[in-house]
């Protein structure tokens, strides 16, 4: 059982109508995607064609920031605000799609972009799954 799942189990109050499994999957996907995007942007900076990767670097860094924030917001349950949760999930899914699309352009030449794209797609889907379950 992951730390995210253990902490949800240890939360002293009921989570309400939030799907626990989708919440765990989304928080974990956000954390993974933030790390992947940070590492991909750094790897881009080391490539010989770095000038061609400027948009990828920027998009990855934006995605890392949004994913980190989303994971943190989703980890807080006291005085839950459904509107804030929906907003951050929408922003995260949108940013992950943009980053995944940009990394896809470079994936044939850079393994780190392929791996980052995969993490972005997982996070986008996890955010959308959680959003759909919130109604």
Can you give me a brief rundown of this structure?
By secondary structure, this protein is mainly α. It has helices spanning 3-10, 20-46, 54-74, 82-106, 111-134.
Question: What topology does this entry show?
Answer:
Layout: H1 3-10, H2 20-46, H3 54-74, H4 82-106, H5 111-134
Helix pairs in contact: 2-3, 2-5, 3-4, 4-5
The largest sheet, given as strand count, sense and whether it forms a barrel, is:
none
In total, the number of domains comes to 1
CATH fold name, please? Substrate Binding Domain Of Dnak, Chain:A, Domain 2
| Low-pLDDT segments | none
Order of helices and strands: HHHHH
**End-to-end separation:** 27 Å
Mean of residue pLDDT values = 94
What is the CA-atom radius of gyration, in angstroms?
16 Å
Please write the CATH class name. Mainly Alpha
Relative helix content: over 70%
Number of strands: 0
Q: Name the shape in a single word.
A: elongated
Structural class: mainly alpha
Strand composition percent: under 5%
CATH architecture: Up-down Bundle
Q: Count of DSSP helices?
A: 5
């Amino acid at each position: 059982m992951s730390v995210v799942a253990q902490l949800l189990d240890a939360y002293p109050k009921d989570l309400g109508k939030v799907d626990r499994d989708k919440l765990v999957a989304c928080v974990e996907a956000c954390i993974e995607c933030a790390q992947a995007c940070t590492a991909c942007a750094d790897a881009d900076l080391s490539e010989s064609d770095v000038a061609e990767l400027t948009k990828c670097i920027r998009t990855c860094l934006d995605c890392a920031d949004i994913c980190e924030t989303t994971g943190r917001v989703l980890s807080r349950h006291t005085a839950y605000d459904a509107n804030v949760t929906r907003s951050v999930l929408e922003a995260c899914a949108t940013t992950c799609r943009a980053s995944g699309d940009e990394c896809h352009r470079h994936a044939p030449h850079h393994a780190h972009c392929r791996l980052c794209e995969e993490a972005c797609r997982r996070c986008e889907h996890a955010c959308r799954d959680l959003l759909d379950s919130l109604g």
